[in-house]
Write a structure and sequence with these properties.
By secondary structure, this protein is an alpha+beta fold. It is built from eight helices and 21 strands.
């Protein structure tokens, strides 16, 4: 169709572990020239297992096939390591695919991380011109948008200061303002709004929504915050281990599938356990589980008229007196309840906290538990809905538990 702006066919990206290049410039040029002509890499190994993920590397993306139409607002969802950022880097032409192809119609404005495309020694104003040049815009086009960009970023007093002196919040304000206001047909954003404050996040999401609905601009958005994804995006693309496992015209279907809620009829209660991928010296969550009054783990449906507890085990290696933690409960993406730990005193070594849930607190349905932890007014440790540290429980009208034997 003529309104297709992004089309991926068998798109794959392979990374070799510990290997940067072929060793010499001449061999690198040979590889580049062969791939440019659609030939095999002359320096690759022969055989089907030349990209064996258990030996020399891994597939960050494998055989992706999808189409995105003009004006689509697509939320790209997946766990850490699913391949989301790699996909966006290929679409932004920062890196090239190993196999397959992607065709893009129109100019692309990318916001992949704070300060992408900025030069630290240049002022904010100069970096706006630099970004415009990267997008292929004329200087007069950038000048015409300059006042609007500066006003949106809300850093007028610092616009002629070198950006190396900017805070991360100022960086993301200016970077987003540039990407959103310069003339591009496709806007790509990767988890950048997590840096900004709440007011700017709301403003930025509103701007992206206006770009897609009012100007017909295509938006690709990656975030672990499902509320932001739901509010901005209309369609969903779910990645898992480098593959597209689901593509929906309704973003709610993608989010529910990703959260494990399914089609609304699935009965699900499951905890979370640290596989070693998360560590923080002040607070390392070890396990979050749903248990009964006798500390027996529960799976399956929890009867509506039965109480239960949410059990959280965590490790503290460096004690800080201003550490705090809480749980946020969601149904689908709707915020329901916040449970705070106010009585527990952290101790060095392993800690265990229980959050009690009284009978009839929740109506029948499936709920998500998101963990939150921080050092007050200082540092996020676990930001709710921005991490994979979540558990689920389902409330029903039955009267039977399914216990996991201890």
């Amino acid at each position: 169709m003529s309104d297709i702006v992004i089309k991926a066919e068998n798109l794959s990206k392979y990374y070799r572990l510990g290997v940067i290049n072929n060793g010499t410039l001449f061999r690198d040029i040979q590889t580049w020239w062969a791939l440019k002509r659609g030939k095999d890499d002359p320096h690759s190994k022969i055989g089907q297992n030349k990209y064996d993920p258990t030996k020399e590397g891994f597939w960050a993306l494998k055989d992706l096939n999808f189409e995105i139409h003009q004006g689509d607002r697509v939320g790209i969802i997946g766990k850490n390591g699913a391949g989301k950022s790699t996909l966006l880097k290929i679409l932004s032409r920062i890196t090239a695919p190993t196999e397959g192809s992607v065709k893009i119609k129109g100019r692309v404005a990318s916001l992949l991380e704070v300060g992408t495309g900025f030069h630290g020694e240049l002022t904010g104003r100069e970096n706006i011109y630099l970004n415009g040049a990267i997008l292929g815009m004329k200087r007069r086009e950038v000048t015409r948008k300059m006042d609007e960009i500066i006003a949106f970023s809300e850093i007028e007093h610092h616009i002629d200061t070198p950006v190396k002196r900017y805070s991360s919040g100022m960086y993301v304000r200016l970077a987003f303002a540039v990407a959103a206001h310069l003339e591009s047909e496709i806007l790509i954003a990767d988890e950048v709004l997590a840096v900004g404050d709440a007011a700017f996040q709301k403003k930025a999401l509103g701007k992206m929504n206006d770009l897609a609905t009012g100007e017909g601009r295509t938006v690709l958005f990656v975030s672990h915050n499902m509320n932001q994804v739901k509010n901005l995006c209309s369609k969903g693309l779910v990645l898992e281990k480098g593959r597209v496992v689901r593509q929906d015209d309704n973003i709610n279907d993608s989010i529910n599938w990703y959260l494990g809620i399914g089609d609304g009829e699935t009965i699900l209660t499951r905890g979370w356990k640290n596989d070693g991928s998360f560590y923080h010296k002040h607070f390392t969550p070890l396990e979050m589980s749903i248990v009964d009054e006798n500390d027996n783990p529960i799976e399956g449906m929890i009867p509506y008229d039965k109480g239960f507890k949410i059990k959280l085990r965590f490790q503290v290696d460096v004690l800080d007196t201003i550490g705090c933690l809480w749980l946020e409960i969601y149904r689908n993406t709707e915020y329901i309840l916040r449970l705070e730990d106010v009585n527990h005193i952290f101790k060095r070594d392993e800690n265990c906290v229980y959050f009690e849930i009284s009978p009839r607190t929740f109506l029948p349905g499936t709920y998500k538990i998101a963990l939150g932890s921080c050092l007050k007014n200082t540092l996020w440790i676990v930001q709710p809905n921005a991490s994979d540290i979540v558990s689920f429980f389902s409330i029903g009208e039955g009267n039977t538990y399914n216990f996991i034997s201890k």
